[in-house]
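Workshop exercise sheet. Pairs work together: one partner reads the sequence aloud, the other fills in the structure field after running the prediction. Swap roles for the next sheet.
Pair: D.N. / O.F.
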Amino acid sequence: MSRKKRKKKRYDPRETFPDTPLITVRTSQIVNIPIILLALLLYVLINNELILTLIISYSIFRILDTYCRVYRVFQNRIEYSWGVLSRRTNNVFNYRIKDIAVEKPFLLRILFRGHVIVHTSGVETGILRMEYIPKVDKIREVLLVQSERGRRKNGVREVDLWSPKRGGN
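Structure field:
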């Protein structure tokens, strides 16, 4: 009897722990620069303590709100969490992704940030906008690969029945 040698499979921690995120990103605080500048300007111009307290409190809340926006890309889904006082989490399964767009406005290109817009066929989240995030090109590539894998695994094909060119009749 001959023994066949088995090839050792490379260890991939994502196979052992499928709920380990491939990528985790947060919204950048760049989005809060106008609010912080406005708060500083009003702090210099206004001497009323109540208004200053409200402006500073609002600025701190916006910074916390931005910090609490987290996007996690898993093997089979995208998880989006947000909220300061009460947390909400939404999932978009990769096989439902129809299209992925990347926007890089001039200012964000200088700061190595951008927006990833994910069009899905989901009911609750038709469009998922990941705004002011780093690594937009890497996220786009990972999402394209994972969505194609999810479609093949689940046997899903995207069929559009309505076309604006044909009039939708």
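Discussion prompt: The longest strand covers residues 97-103. What would you look at next?
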